[in-house]
Amino acid sequence: xxxxxxxxxxxxxxxxxxxxxxxxxxxxxxxxxxxxxxxxxxxxxxxxxxxxxxxxxxxxxxxxxxxx
Amino acid sequence: xxxxxxxxxxxxxxxxxxxxxxxxxxxxxxxxxxxxxxxxxxxxxxxxxxxxxxxxxxxxxxxxxxxxxxxxxxxxxxxxxxxxxxxxxxxxxxxxxxxxxxxxxxxxxxxxxxxxxxxxxxxxxxxxxxxxxxxxxxxxxxxxxxxxxxxxxxxxxxxxxxxxxxxxxxxxxxxxxxxxxxxxxxxxxxxxxxxxxxxxxxxxxxxxxxxxxxxxxxxxxxxxxxxxxxxxxxxxxxxxxxxxxxxxxxxxxxxxxxxxxxxxxxxxxxxxxxxxxxxxxxxxxxxxxxxxxxxxxxxxxxxxxxxxxxxxxxxxxxxxxxxxxxxxxxxxxxxxxxxxxxxxxxxxxxxxxxxxxxxxxxxxxxxxxxxxxxxxxxxxxxxxxxxxxxxxxxxxxxxxxxxxxxxxxxxxxxxxxxxxxxxxxxxxxxxxxxxxxxxxxxxxxxxxxxxxxxxxxxxxxxxxxxxxxxxxxxxxxxxxxxxxxxxxxxxxxxxxxxxxxxxxxxx
Lengths: 68, 507
Ligand SMILES: Cc1cc2nc3c(=O)[nH]c(=O)nc-3n(C[C@H](O)[C@H](O)[C@H](O)COP(=O)(O)OP(=O)(O)OC[C@H]3O[C@@H](n4cnc5c(N)ncnc54)[C@H](O)[C@@H]3O)c2cc1C
Fold this sequence. Notes:
- The complex is a heterodimer.
- Chain A is an all-alpha fold.
- Chain A is built from three helices and no strands.
- Chain A has a domain at 28-68.
- Chain B contains twelve helices and 28 strands.
- In chain B, helix 1 links the parallel strand 1 (13-20) and strand 2.
- The mean pLDDT of chain B is 96.
- Chain A binds chain B through residues 29-30, 33-38, 41-42, 45, and chain B through 367-368, 370-372, 374-376, 378-379, 385-386, 389.
- The complex binds flavin-adenine dinucleotide.
């Protein structure tokens, strides 16, 4: 069974962060929320593995994201 | 039309089976029991069939049950057949689905029909059996439930009486008196939203499909659902939001304006019925309380997105009646009734799950839920992967925890026929065998399916029957009287067949 991968994997995190900020620029709160939701839906479908997604949701909803 | 009020019962009256509530589900149960030779006393506080905007979508499984009860053709003739749903966002289509894309079934995915037609036919069919004592304007006002049945107090226009029901089917609807009198909690969720349901007569050229709009130009920010019914009547559900004033929304002029905005100024229409609803999902913890059994809305309530209320209730009756008939005939112990709880509670859970999810999608609880809903709708238009997320109602299907006998076209003596008509048709268990004649066993009706013409067999000319049953030559499937699969086994295994039948009868 596949598991959520949590080790650092992106070559250029700063660039991704900037892309996300750019995508949100000029959007009001509601539009921003829609954008994030769309992103999650698109990526979730790309991942296509319910167990991995469940782990991701569990990780995101942890009270303190201080690592395991 | 009003039914005549019945006189009170004689003093000290007892009856083997009493059905309390002659709505869709109580009438179905009474007819099913009568078809199995069981005498039924049916009490209803009213003297007419249901009026106004209630169930319209009758699902395939319900139609099959009414087929078994002899009413299937009436539904097909009068009802509006459909299988496709379309979902729009604003003025564009976001998603469409076909609920029965394959051929070779006697009944379609859905038939739309006003609930009062169904109830009227059920009343007539109950009367025709001569076994159902229909007592209109008999209201249950008291109940004492014990291990030997329920002692009911009944109020009628001509006086009160008591009735000892050895078995009681509580089919008295969502506000069930019996449930409240027995102090049984009915827990669940209320959705903070209001819906205007308008039944409108018009000559319109919408196709015979279920159309659902999110945020349409004629009703911005809310959803609308459109269904066609017989007699040029159309059902339109307008979502109003929680803050709407139900009294003001019921004003005919206000409703006219909403409908006119939808149809355009040139379409003439007449309003038949207006109601404003708030929906909820909830159920009883258990449906069986010694010899009192709860069915239909008395046992569970769902929001109507998915048409799971009436359809779920009819399936309760289907599940219960053969059991009760077997117990009354001494063929099975009373524990057979525990199977009703074991199957219909998870079935109700499943119905509640689906209608809760649909209602949550249609009525987002907060800004985040709204953003997610709109994200799905925006993506759905251009991207197939997002369409299955669109939830305007997951339409009624049989409980996923059991296997219903499949339908398929067959030939009998060269005449077109349907497989399902032969399963449970005479009230007993049915063994369907392929190619090999099964042994004759007491209480089990044999059906032989043949690959090539053979005397006394049903010819599986298209191969669909055996394919859907999953039968290889020499194999057989045993079905309960309610057409649910009991076992698959070799056609010749007499001892195993009897053991499977006995297990299904809890003996
Ligand atoms: C707007 C709307 C749309 C719907 N659409 C659909 C749909 O498309 N498909 C679907 O399957 N379902 C639908 N439903 C749900 C469906 O109408 C119900 O699930 C169904 O009517 C339940 O049947 P019932 O026999 O359990 O209860 P009811 O039909 O409510 O019948 C209860 C009966 O009990 C009688 N009664 C009550 N109290 C007493 C008493 N104390 N003594 C004697 N008699 C009593 C009443 O007179 C009544 O006849 C819809 C509901 C609504 C409101």
